[in-house]
Amino acid sequence: MIKKQKAELRKSILSNRANTIFLISSFILAAIIVFLSISLYSNFQIEPTKIQIEYTVKPDSLIHIEVMNGCGVAGVADVFTNYLRKSNFDVIQMGNYYSFDIEKTLVVDRTGNKKNAQLVAKSLGLAEDVVISQTNKNYFLDVSVIIGKDFNQLNLY
Q1: Cα 55 to Cα 2: distance, rounded to the nearest angstrom
Q2: How many domains does the chain have?
């Protein structure tokens, strides 16, 4: 009978140890799951980014521009568009002018705010005398740039 009691006592002790180990392991595993959940949640949380715009020329508001190729050189409107966009102007239209015989690059004020056209001209390295006004309320842009054959003498080249 003593042997039987000793055997039952051993079983009881082993069972208690197993239960204790299982309980401790469960708590550790639960803590790891909670930690990983919090970590994943904080990594996927989206924070708004702050956008800072630094203008090389500071307009009063966003200037909407069209760039027209008036010299006939392929790709020149793309180069001007990229340059003006990097200078923080909003180029909303690009294409060919109705003629490829434009000798000097022109900047055309379309809204009656000549200051915006002068800022675009200055950004391109043009004198103020190339800025002309042709206001038209049907246009949804502020300034037109008509690229002439003198394009390779400007700031972006």
Answers
A1: 94
A2: 2
